[in-house]
Amino acid sequence: SESGYDRVIGEMVKPFGKTYTQDIKIKILGTPEPDTARIAITEMQLPYTVDEFLTIYRAKVKEELQNPTLMPGAEKLVRHLHKHDIPIAVATSSSQDSMELKTKNHQSLFKLFHHIVCGSTDPEVKHGKPAPDIFLVCASRFPDKPSPDQCVVLEDAPNGAKGAIAAGMQAVLVPDPGVPEECRRPATLVLKSLTEFQPELFGLPAFD
């Protein structure tokens, strides 16, 4: 869904003669909505308050994200882990409303997750990615409350990978090709595609 968010912000800043550059995208990628607004306004000197930005942003996102496609390899991995009784959850910076919109056509798949934490609207998540809060909250909601070193996080955003590492977890990053090398370094492992992921490298059951 990140390309959809990029298009929305690009459209919002164009009337002001601003360009949504790759450097700014990397700062925003994976952050909760209020942080997205603050970073965009500051970096591009936009004539919005945070509330004004979010009102326009959320309306455009609702139009843009009607039916996002799954990342290649995601469905296979989720069903594989569920089949082998590996507890899985979602830790997203999206709001509850945005998450419901994005997943409405993938309900059967998302029902396989034990729980979903939405960082933009969950009161227990005090600080957004790259802070570790969302990952620690997410882990705490599993019945057995695994320690951070028992958790593997799959991320497409460098901010998310940083947050996972800060939480004491392992982070597998599948970044956009435009993400520079220095932004990939915090991750435990960097892949070009989720189809390359080998669960057994992290002590998980190998694909059949």
From TrEMBL:
Q: Which UniProt keywords are listed?
A: Hydrolase, Magnesium, Metal-binding
Q: What's a single GO MF annotation on this record?
A: pseudouridine 5'-phosphatase activity
InterPro entries recorded:
HAD-like_sf (IPR036412), HAD-SF_hydro_IA (IPR006439), HAD_sf (IPR023214), PGP-like_dom2 (IPR023198)
Q: Which reaction does it catalyse?
A: psi-UMP + H2O = pseudouridine + phosphate
> In the Enzyme Commission scheme, what number(s) does this protein have?
3.1.3.96
Cofactor requirements of the protein = Mg(2+)
Under which main EC class is this enzyme filed? hydrolase
**Similarity section:** Belongs to the HAD-like hydrolase superfamily. CbbY/CbbZ/Gph/YieH family.
Q: What is this protein called?
A: pseudouridine 5'-phosphatase
Instruction: Give the classification, highest ranks.
Output: Eukaryota, Metazoa, Ecdysozoa, Arthropoda, Hexapoda
